[in-house]
Amino acid sequence: MRTTMTSREFNQDTSKAKKASADGPVFITDRGRPAHVLLSIDDYNRLVGRAGRVMSLAEAVAQPGDDADFEFDPPKLQGFIKPVDFD
């Protein structure tokens, strides 16, 4: 579950944010834009792995579990590829 809080809400009720992080990441916004993410230590450890390295995209996609929530919608390249001129 994704939770979003403003910076003001976070400052006024940190314990609420910590409790919400048990269900998933808590996005903290500044002026309506995501600025920080609060994770439980278990979620953090899953991201960095046991060796302390950041998980690759392939590892993130391949994680087991029915509750995996991974969305990836790459932007379409427009005007980037030009036809080859063989003259």
From TrEMBL:
<dbReference type="InterPro" id="IPR036165">
    <property type="entry name" value="YefM-like_sf"/>
</dbReference>
<dbReference type="InterPro" id="IPR006442">
    <property type="entry name" value="Antitoxin_Phd/YefM"/>
</dbReference>
<protein>
    <recommendedName>
        <fullName>Antitoxin</fullName>
    </recommendedName>
</protein>
<dbReference type="Pfam" id="PF02604">
    <property type="entry name" value="PhdYeFM_antitox"/>
</dbReference>
<comment type="function">
    <text>Antitoxin component of a type II toxin-antitoxin (TA) system.</text>
</comment>
<feature type="compositionally biased region" description="Polar residues">
    <location>
        <begin position="1"/>
        <end position="14"/>
    </location>
</feature>
<feature type="region of interest" description="Disordered">
    <location>
        <begin position="1"/>
        <end position="22"/>
    </location>
</feature>
<comment type="similarity">
    <text>Belongs to the phD/YefM antitoxin family.</text>
</comment>
